Amino acid sequence: MKYQARRRFGQHFLESTWADKVVAAIKPKPADRFLEIGPGPGILTSRLLPRVGSLTAVEIDRDLAAAVAADHPGVRLMVGDVLEMDLSELLAEGPLRVAGNLPYNISSPILFKLLATARQSANLVDATVMLQREVAERLAARVGTRDYGVLTVFAQAQADVTRLLVLPPGAFRPAPKVESAVVRLAFKPPAVPPELAERFERLVRSVFMQRRKTLSNALRPVAGAAGLDAREVLGGAGIDPMRRPETLTVADLAALAQALPKA
To answer: Minimal CB count within 10 Å: which of 54, 182, 197, 251?
Structure first.
């Protein structure tokens, strides 16, 4: 049965030929537990289900959720917005992998939710997701490049990021106007300890808003709010104040967060 993609949900359904390639990239194993975000008409679902131990799917479109439930009775369906869902019960059951074709319009919020979830539970193993190619390049960007920014730092602070596959617009229906990519985030213990997480996030978001400025200027709002001199903070962290934010590694940014007082 053909399903009409709904623009309000940002739906672009994967074609069968490409679905086989995506599943090969995911590398599901018989003992794996999976959470699929946005199964749509079930093109990935039908390929994952016979290959894994269990499969839970989250779908916001009630009509599609009903169809997936009818066509794949072995799938546990959760109907609603993944951004509003508490995944703690799923994670409490054991190691969990994530797969999905993420809507372009909310892919970044979903990524941030997955990162936050991985900080809360070591049972979140990895996430292999389809994204707009531009977002995928930001996730995997190297320090000092144009694409290196807030999303890069947060992702690489707690995951090994690998770009697995590039998909042309024709891999989907309706075809989007841009290329897509499949990326795997293999979660690992955060590079930033929990007590520094809030300061780290505040610092990263602030300095990358002024990424073209020198650090002595870019850090001034954060340092000033704490009653500190930006150059002194940078000196304490052993970082040259003439560098720019986009040249800072995750370790550099963690050292800067350590040099700032708790809010």
So the answer is: 251
